[in-house]
Write a structure and sequence with these properties.
Strand content: 25-35%
Number of strands: 18
Shape: globular
CATH class of the largest domain: Alpha Beta
Radius of gyration: 23 Å
Number of helices: 11
Distance between the termini: 41 Å
Structural class: alpha+beta
CATH architecture of the largest domain: Alpha-Beta Complex
Order of helices and strands: HHEEEEEEEEHEEEHHHHEEEEEEHHHHE
Bound molecules: FE2/S2 (inorganic) cluster, fe (ii) ion
Helix content: 10-25%
CATH topology of the largest domain: Naphthalene 1,2-dioxygenase Alpha Subunit, Chain A, domain 1
Length: 424
């Protein structure tokens, strides 16, 4: 549990809030690169309780502004995107990618130039990598922090398949869903059962169903921690799910050697809404971008892949008949992410963590909250940002699942060069 004060500290991320201030200092995924076409429709993007607009100019560069026009606040998502800039449809003022106001046609001709120079346009640093547009919304726009060049951000776009889910709850609930390894055997039991016998995940699913109470071990890392969830198997092996948590937003989901990888980010839209990015990638070659190949069926919209999830008013379409017939959750026909999202939403928009009663299986959750609280206290004290110091090698963060003969040591497994796995 958390006391109410700490719960508020960690969950409130709007303008002026301490956690909001700290989280804005990290690069965050804003939208898929493919969503922005040259001279195409600008995208409306909400992050940290504020509204923004992103667009791709004629020359291919991306601009990122506050949504409201600096003149009288009309939405720049409505703007014309032409001639390397956005032109507001209200009075025709135009802004280039760098945030400079370049035309103010409603002003007297002789003073337009000097007037335009004085128009303040709030714009932000962007970086495109890993088939995503990332934005830095922090204070130091002239000198943004180092970009977290995770392994997938170096891959060509045909090896990456990003998807964005949207959930009606606070970012920390979204993150905690990603951190909680203990639920897999229960919440996703039916999904896992369906996978036994399928492709290279079959052994994975069988291993996970074998025990619902894995033991957890950790290696502290400057970006967060590496976690081994260990399940002893009747076949004499230990099945280890070696996961990487890179605070404040990312969880790298273990995949068997040779399989597709998945990294998830929990990004605040505002206090009560969260973007859950599920970025599938294949370090070995091209990726099959169909959702089924990566994380189960979804709505088909990569910018809102759970748009057909329902909400509390229809109990998220839970199918009681399917439950009576043996399905664990009654959340059928869609991938695991729907089950994760629905239990998080069911807690309410901002769960009161002072009401919890935690058990041994919550060790990761407790650990993570402490790490985040330490980080915010440090940031409040002297402005030091955790998890992204020069010692962090973002590029060498990789999760893996692996079965080895009992008695082996998961800490010795190098995810980039695992020992050859014996056939099951
Ligand atoms: S409100 Fe945008 S130009 Fe006037
Ligand atoms: Fe899950």
């Amino acid at each position: 549990m958390l006391n109410r004060e700490d719960n508020e500290l960690l969950t409130r991320i709007g303008p002026g809030m301490p956690m909001g201030g700290m989280l804005r200092e990290y690069w965050v995924p804003a939208c898929r690169s493919a969503k922005l076409e040259r001279d195409g429709a600008p995208a409306r993007i909400r992050l940290f309780g504020e509204n923004f607009v992103a667009f791709r100019a004629t020359d291919g560069r991306v601009g990122f502004f506050n949504e409201g026009c600096p003149h009288r606040c009309a939405s720049l998502a409505l703007a014309r995107n032409e001639g390397n800039g956005l032109r507001c449809i209200f009075h025709g003022w135009k802004f280039d990618v760098s945030g400079k106001c370049v035309e103010t046609p409603t002003e007297p001709e002789d003073r337009r130039g000097t007037f335009a120079d004085r128009v303040p346009v709030k714009h932000y640093a962007v970086h495109e990598a890993g088939a995503l547009v990332w934005v830095y919304l922090g204070k130091n726009q002239a000198n943004p922090p180092r970009f977290p060049d995770y392994e997938f951000t170096k891959l060509p776009e045909d090896q990456i398949a990003p998807r964005r889910g949207v959930i009606h709850c606070n970012w920390l609930q979204g993150l905690e869903a990603l951190l909680d390894s203990a639920h897999v055997t229960f919440l996703h039991a039916s999904g896992l059962g369906g996978r036994v016998g399928q492709d290279f995940y079959k052994q994975e699913a069988a291993y996970m169903l074998e025990t619902g109470a894995p033991t957890f071990e950790f290696i502290q890392q400057p970006y967060g921690f590496r976690e081994g969830a260990l399940r002893d198997q009747p076949d004499g092996k230990t099945y280890a799910r070696i996961r990487e948590v890179a605070f404040p937003f990312a969880s790298f989901i273990p995949a068997p050697p040779g399989g597709y990888s998945l990294v998830c980010f929990s990004i605040p839209i505002d206090d009560e809404w969260t973007a859950q990015w599920y970025v599938g990638f294949n370090v070995h070659g091209k990726i099959d971008p169909r959702p089924r190949a990566i994380m189960g069926r979804d709505s088909g919209d990569p910018d809102f892949f759970n748009s057909d999830m329902g909400d509390v008013s229809n109990m998220w379409h839970q199918d009681r008949k399917a439950m009576a017939d043996g399905h664990w959750t009654g959340i059928t026909g869609r991938g695991n992410a729907y089950e994760d999202f629905i239990v998080q939403e069911s807690m309410g928009p901002i769960v009161d963590r002072s009401q919890e009663f935690l058990g041994t299986c919550d060790v990761v959750i407790v650990r993570s909250r402490k790490i985040l609280l330490d980080a915010i206290h440090q940031y409040q004290k002297d402005g030091t940002l955790s998890f992204c110091g020069p010692e962090v090698n973002f590029n060498r963060i990789r999760a893996i699942s692996y079965a080895y003969p009992k008695g082996g040591d998961w800490k010795k497994i190098d995810p980039f060069n695992p020992p050859v796995q014996q056939a099951a």
